[in-house]
Amino acid sequence: MKRHVALTLGLMAVLSLIVTACGGAATTAAPAALPYQGVTVNVLTFTGPQIAEPLQRHGPEFEKATGAHINVATVPFSDLYQKALTDFSTGTNSYDVIVFDPQWMGDYVAGGYLEDLTDRVKANKDLQWDDVGAFFRDFSATYQGKTYTIPLDGDFQMVYYRSDLIKTPPETWDDFIALAKEYQGKDLNGDSKPDYGTCIAMKRSAQSYWMVSSIASAFLQSQGTGQGGFFTTDNLQPLYGPNEGFGAALDVYKTLSTLGPPDQLNLDVGDTRGLFTSGRCALSIDWGDIGPLAVDPATSKVQDKVGAVILPGSKKVLDRASGKLVDCDAKTCPYATNGVNHAPFAAFGGWSGAINKNSKANVKDAAFAFLAYVSAPAQSNVDVTIGKTGFNPYRLSQFKSRDAWLKSGMSEKATADYLGAIEASLNSPNMVLDLRIPQNAYYQGTVLDTAIAQFLAGEIDKDATMKQISDGWNKKTDELGRDKQLAAYKATLGVTK
Amino acid sequence: MSVAERTQGPALSESGLEAHSPLARLQTWLEASATSAFILHAVLVVLFLAIFPLIVSLYVSLSRLQFVPGGFQLTFVGLDNYAKLVVGIDREHFMGRFGEPHPIGWLFFGLVVLSQILLMYRYIRGGNAAVGGAIGRIVTASAITAGAWLIVHTLGPASRPGTVVVTLIYVFAGIVIQYTLGLGLAYLCIQQIPARRFFRVVFLIPMMITPVGIAYLFRMLADTTKGPVYPIWNILGLANTSWVSNPWGARAAVMIGDVWQWTPFMFIVLLAALESQSIEPIEAAVVDGASRWQIFWEITIPTILPVSSTLILIRMIEAFKIVDLPNVLTNGGPGTATESLTLHAYTIWRTLDIGGSAAVAYMLLFMVTFIGVSYANLIRQRLAEA
After folding, report:
1. Same-domain pairing of B152 and B172
2. pLDDT of residue B11
């Protein structure tokens, strides 16, 4: 009996040795073919489906080519900022790549959590760095002269309108309101139910706090990008405070909140996009997403009925010395067209990928290769034409070559219109840069977002809203050091294009 | 006397366990310390897990987080985070906007003050008054009066409740409705009705569902423009109004969800209490010709009072922490109308202002502890004795 047991054990030992030897041979053979065999890259982004979708789709392709396994984790948008920052600052380091809002980069770079990608970007051929629009390269991807992110998306807010109904797109916010009033309550998609003049995401704690800046910018910035659209550049006084310019913007926003769906205050961008593409809205303010979503035959009822145009402007702008609105003339609005000051808002800056500095060296290599793969023209130029990716054009080739757009089902005219609106915004000398000072997430995501939500819900009036935002911003600025914040603000404005 | 000398002597003579000998004393000491030693590690673990985070978070609530090269730093700022909530920029959000109360508000306030004075008077006249008890009662009475003042001044026509009052509304209105419904359902389920076992299970289901699931369910139900109840809204002509865009409508939506989820908890405990009451007093009452209402009011209610008071205490502590429903249903909106204290803390924490967030959380802790302790001391004790 004992001998039997010993024999069986011996046999098992020999067998396991053979298996191990074979297995060893198999794994040692693999790395020669696949550079990142056995490496897992953990990616964090927000609960899409947009943005997460292309990453999840390209993950297996990339794994097949390189052996690196891509694991995409998602959290709600409002949790993304703190989730990654907490993970990095506590040394947990469960994420190797974050695909996030480059506006927040300052807080991440200050803590030393992001890998400096400057040399890698220069060395990588597939990425075609020079093809990325200069604005996205120099602003979205760069902080204090170093490159920390790879842009995957380009973001500007603009106005979408139903080109079958509206022949002259709005030039000013007054035009926008007039059009919204005209179509509010009318049937726009032939189902004999009343539809809406405008659909704008106004939900709290969502991706909606950029909308009010898209309106306010036209009143607040007229002297070019370097003037800044959020603060004065001498002592960092909030422009989102008690002055006639911001007051006018709040009036516009409040009026628009009544010219849409009854639950507009509870709608996020996903909801308004759905309403617009199902033909229920005459107008909308959004990033580049509605363009490609409108040509998706599976969901869109407004194919070839969508026009896009640069954000409307204003014929009156804020005089910062007096706090009053003044008429546009050659001096007050040097960049005006037809006497209208346009200030296209580069909201958000475009989803970008950054790499955790504390990840292992081979994981960082694989992570960079993955981001470069997703951003490379071969993938990106197709992704930007698909609505559900959430990726919008940011490469020069995406503007130049229109084949991919036409192939996606967009008509010649719609393509010209859509890319034209983005190009007009991108090339505007009076483009408004999004806020990128330390803890901007608090300035915008907490103070601005809460005050605007309260204002729209009628909890506080216009004056109280202006005061609440300006007090909240000033308090935070003083806490963090006014001089430091001012220097950071001026530094971001120095990078124009 | 040296140690060596002490170990020699009577202790080693004869049995070695002579009383007062150093060895025996050592043994007694060891035995006495053994009890402490055995629970010491458990106490340390509890201290480490419960008290340590409490102290650290208290420090966090007194400081400000900043990102600096190489990581982050916490700067001590004293009571600044609390001052922001009570007198600073976040006061309207936290406490609400004060306005002249409605006449009904004044009436309510008057009644509260009057009842406090009455209770105090009865306590003093009762003959058992002590200094400690009197101080406790004065503190509680002042806090209740202050709470009533806050409620009537933020619920008037030109005012707006802050997150404190909204939370109090969720807690007290919610508990009253849940208790009444739960008791009603439990009373029905002890009657000899057909399929009552089935109903018992059905009534329990909402409690088993995760709160986020319930929030999504009610978000769909509350959507008048396209939800599953759209046809009904349409027939009623209300398809173009949204009740979650109205502050009180949205608060009602949150409360309906909360009531739907937590009534089963009240139901199951009250059902057990009702079933365990002895049948003899009821039979005696029936023989004496008591009506059903009299039996319910005079026999059943006093029997289940001790259970009810504990039940309400547990539910109250739990209800103060409501966050998932308002967060998913309305994100705290419209404006800040449905924001509870926990959601308030969570919103601030999301942008990593962890000092401000901890301050809100501590205010909530003070409130819950104070109300819980006052309730346990004053009401529960009395109810249990009754």
Report:
1. no
2. 43
Q: Is A78 on the interface with B (CB under 8 A)?
A: yes
- Place B13 in a pLDDT band, splitting at 50, 70 and 90: very low
A287 vs A273, A418, A453, B373, CA distance in Å? 10, 11, 20, 53
Are residues B42 and B184 located together in one domain of the fold? no
Q: What is the pLDDT of residues B44-67, one digit of tens each?
A: 888 888 888 889 999 999 998 887
Asked if B293 is an interface residue toward chain A (Cβ–Cβ < 8 A), one would say no
Q: Which of A43, A74, A80 is nearest to A58 (CA)?
A: A43
Render the burial of B290-326: b for 16+ CB within 10 Å, e for the rest. beeeebeeebbeebbbebbbebbbebbeebbebbbbb
Residues spanned by the domain of B33: 3-61
State the residue for tokens 């024999």: A7
Mean pLDDT of A348-356: 93
Distance CA A325, CA A156 (A): 26
Distance (Å) of CA B39 to CA B29, B32, B73, B224: 16, 12, 37, 58
Query: Strand, coil or helix: what is B150?
Result: helix
This complex has an ipTM of 0.79
Q: Which of B137, B158, B179 is the last residue of a domain?
A: B158
**Residue A189 forms contact with B (CB below 8 Å):** no
Q: What are the structure tokens assigned to B359, written together?
A: 């301050």
**Which CATH code fits A40-151+352-389?**
3.40.190.10
Sign of CA dihedral A326, A328, A333, A336: positive
- State whether B333 and A457 contact (CB < 8 Å): yes
Q: DSSP letter for B101, please.
A: P
With tokens 């049948």, the residue in question is B279
Examine residue B86 and state whether it is found in any structural domain, yes or no: no
In a domain, B134, yes or no: yes
B371 contact partners, CB below 8 Å, separation of at least 6: B316, B320
The pLDDT tens digits for A203-217 are 888 888 999 999 999
A355, amino acid identity:
I
Which CATH superfamily hosts domain A158-346+426-494?
A: Periplasmic binding protein-like II (3.40.190.10)
CA distance, residue B152 to nearest chain A CA (Å): 17
Q: Nearest-CA neighbor of A325 among A250, A413, A225?
A: A250
pLDDT on residue A306: 93
Task: State the smallest CA–CA distance between residue B225 and chain A in angstroms.
Answer: 8
pLDDT confidence bin for B10, thresholds 50/70/90: very low
Query: Chain A contact for B91, CB < 8 A?
Result: no
Question: Which strand (E) or helix (H) includes residue A466?
Answer: helix A462-480
Report the residue of chain B nearest A79, measured CA to CA: B350
Judged against a pLDDT cut of 90, whether residue A152 lies above it is answered with yes
